[in-house]
Structure formats: structure tokens, C-alpha cells
Amino acid sequence: MKITLLTGKTFDLQKAFNLPLKVRSSLKIARLSLRIDTKKRQVILNMPLLCSKKRAYAFVESHLDWIEAHLLKIPIAREFKNNETILLFGQKVTISHIPNSLSSPKLNDNVLEVGGDEVFLHRRVKDYIIKQAKTEFFKRSQKLADRLGCKIKNVTIKDTASRWGSCSTLNNINYNWRIALAPDYVIDYLMAHEVAHLKHRDHSADFWQCVKDLYPGYEEGQMWLKKFGKNLYLYS
Ligand SMILES: [Zn+2]
What we know:
Layout lengths: L1 E3 L5 E3 H5 L3 E6 L6 E5 L4 E7 L4 H10 L1 H10 L11 E4 L2 E8 L7 E3 L2 E5 L5 H28 L5 E5 L6 E3 L4 E5 L7 H13 L8 H10 L3 H15 L4
Parallel strand pairs: 3-5, 7-9, 10-12
Antiparallel strand pairs: 1-2, 4-5, 6-7, 8-9, 11-12
The structure holds zinc ion (ZN).
């Protein structure tokens, strides 16, 4: 990030420290501070407008250990790879890249055949999962909703950054596409959770009883999401 100082001189902190560093400078910033943007894997330096280059440089330099420790803690994003075996709707599936194939991804037994340039492999697998999830999750959710005498209006598959699912007052249910990669009992729990919201809009004792009626072993799925759900978020 090149900064043009009031004196007209520029300097490049990113280059000087070989760090993914972004400088934010504004009148509102009163003092030098550092922040880590974990999503972008970037260091943000907040710098007052009138701060000197020398001071900013010294400040970053004195915090290099802190920066490095925090950058190391950020998990590396995952992408689907050729020959990788994933869990898809509770079934073990191996991704097989077929460079010359122009057809859309196809599941053959336990092999997911994906054509096209390898650069787009991740994107194509993700699109395939999203498409399948819409049908699969609608079917599974409506089956549970039938037991409550409720009708689901629509199921939408989302690429949200923090939520696994949600249910609107209009009976539209949203699911995060990554849940397709969780063990089957986790999917069952989430479907039971969102479907129970068709009857109970809160997280009251009655709501949880309804989840239990729909899926008696729900606690295990809930626990899994709490413990390992973050690993699924590594898929971009
Ligand atoms: Zn809920």
C-alpha cells in the first residue's frame, strides 16, 4: 500500500515488511493501531493523517511478532480438488476431474465427474452441490414439515458467512450450502431445527421439544456443528 504523505513523498509499507498490509488513514483516526482482517488475511494499519512515515514504520516493526502470530492463526481456505473424497449428503464421494468433458458435473456411483478447466473445478463442484442441495433439502425438510402439518413455501441455498439456516415468517427456509458436506445426522438436525421454526418462531422449550419430536437424536448433530462446523466454513 503506497501512501502519499502531505510532504508529497510516498512509501510502501507492504513492500518494506513483505506483509499483506493495508493502510487506512483519515481525520477520524486519532492514533496508530493494528487490526487483522481474518477474512481477507490482511493486516490493517489505522494511521492518523498527520502521522509521520517513520512513526508508522516503527509502530509496525514493533508489532511484527504480534502480526505474525495472528496471521498464522488464520486457517487456510479450502478448495475442492481432483481425487479428493468428500462427504456429500452423507455419502462418500470422490471428485474426478475429466478435462475433456464439457457436460455438467455428474454423479456416477460414488464418483463425481467434473469437466472443464481445472481452474474452475472448485467453482463447478460448489455450483453442483448448491443445485443438488436445493432439491435434496427441500425434499427432506418438507417430509419433516408434513409431520407438523406445515407447508414450506421455498427452500433457498445460501452462501452466508455465519448462519447454517434460517426460517422466515413466510415459511421460506434458507440453508447454508456447506451443510451438504456435514455428516447425515447433522443435516437431519439442521432440517429439524429450521422446520420446527415453522411452528415455533423462537428458541423456547416448546421449540426444542418439537425439534426432539422430529429428530430424537438431535443433540449429537447440534454438538457436531458447534465443534466442527467451523471447518466447513473453510470452503470458500
Ligand atoms: Zn433457530
